[in-house]
Amino acid sequence: MSESQTDALSEPLYKAEGAAIGAVVFFSSASENTARFVDNCDFQDEGINVYRIPLRPKDPALNVREPYVLIVPTYGGGSAHKAVPTQVKQFLNNPDNRQYIRGVIASGNSNFGEAYCIAGDIISAKCKVPFMYRFELMGTPEDRTAVRQGLLDFYTKAREPVAATV
Length: 166
Ligand SMILES: Cc1cc2nc3c(=O)[nH]c(=O)nc-3n(C[C@H](O)[C@H](O)[C@H](O)COP(=O)(O)O)c2cc1C
Hints:
Helices cover 33% and strands 18% of the residues. The protein is an alpha/beta fold. The protein has a single domain, classed as Flavodoxin domain (Rossmann fold, 3-Layer(aba) Sandwich), CATH 3.40.50. A five-stranded parallel sheet has the order 2-1-3-4-5, with helices on both faces. Helix 2 crosses helix 6. The termini are far apart. The protein binds flavin mononucleotide. Flavin mononucleotide is lined by residues 28-29, 31-35, 73-78, 83, 107-109, 112, 115-117, 137. Belongs to the NrdI family. It comes from Bifidobacterium subtile. Pfam families: Flavodoxin_NdrI (PF07972). Probably involved in ribonucleotide reductase function.
């Protein structure tokens, strides 16, 4: 495969209504909990593009070139070095993708105790971005409201012009 094919800019899974104010990038395994959370958030209605990191190595790589918040489930069964899914590591190992991350939201299962949602702590520390929110499995309606509103506020504030200093 040629370099231009591997680096081709990806299309969002759900394209923002009107002019985009920001983006969400998410990963979800075959159990699809995170995918259900994202589907039910309808981010595209708020002007947020939604991109999905592919599950299978054969799928074309995701290339995102706009600011995004990453939504990631925690894996590893309590082991920190396996907590971030391989597919997410590969996506972030591309510096052209990594430079646009602005925050991370992690999901998990509270049965894992201290390892609950630790993928968020790890990515936050490595990429130096805020760990914005955590939720369990496919989230609750309250989680969806909090994340939708939180991202809207985050991207709206990011667009406000910096006040002139005198
Ligand atoms: C093998 C395995 C290991 C997991 N390890 C953790 C963990 O260390 N910490 C945690 O909070 N959740 C852990 N989980 C729970 C998942 O993060 C949770 O089920 C999540 O909703 C999966 O999202 P997905 O269906 O979108 O892939 C684990 C789940 C599985 C199947």
